[in-house]
Amino acid sequence: MKIKEGFMLREMCGDYIVLAESLELIDFNKLIHLNESAVYLWQGVEGREFDADVLAGLLVDKYGIGQEQAFSDATSL
């Protein structure tokens, strides 16, 4: 997987949102609000290929949870 080009993470008034900044994404009319964990994962994989194992590894490193729980959370994301 890879974050689609044109989607950007922005901080607004203390909250983090994802928005489309490309004309080819003009039909995308939503803002996606991310919690702290989602922001951490976004920043950890931005600009590179990743899979659920990479996301799980980031969760284990940040929160010290078990690999099985981290993988389950990553795949549900």
Task: Write a structural description.
By secondary structure, the chain is of the alpha+beta class. Helices cover 42% and strands 19% of the residues. It contains 3 helices and 3 strands, in the order βββααα. Strands 1-2-3 form a 3-stranded antiparallel beta sheet. The radius of gyration is 13 Å and the shape is globular.
Strand order of the largest sheet: 1-2-3
Taken together, the total number of domains comes to 1
The proportion of residues in beta strands is 15-25%
The computed structural class is alpha+beta
Tally of separate helices: 3
Low-confidence stretches: none
List keywords for this structure.
alpha+beta; 3 strands; 3 helices; about 80 residues; about 20% strand
In short:
The chain has three helices and three strands; from the N terminus they run βββααα.
Layout of helices and strands, plus pairs?
Blueprint: E1 7-12, E2 15-20, E3 32-34, H1 36-45, H2 52-63, H3 67-76
